[in-house]
Amino acid sequence: MTRDQAIRKRDRLAAKLSPSSGILRGSLLQRTIHHSSGCLKCARGEGHPLWVLTVGYPGGKNRQVSLRPDQVPQVRKAIEQYHEFKRNLEAISELNQFLLRLDREESKEQERQA
Ligand SMILES: [Zn+2]
Question: Which residues surround ligand 1, an ion (CB under 5 A)?
Fold first, then answer.
């Protein structure tokens, strides 16, 4: 990869990062809740499905957010966007690292020639 290719690739990735306001970190879980008494569905053993967003934090902490069914598609999309954003960020970082190393190699080359 040449410097120009690396810079072009990096700038393309950076341009993709811009719409970041919708991102959400975490994962979707489907749970079933059971009432202890007075519910026919639960008496039949069916229970009620419930969607939860779980978000992990350093130190093993976890936060859970209950979701309405109509929020699930939007949350799923936001989680995908988070992963894509992170992948792009990581790729940009790798390209900048490559450019740094290239700079260093080129300056060594010039020292040898001087
Ligand atoms: Zn119930």
Answer: 35, 39, 41-42
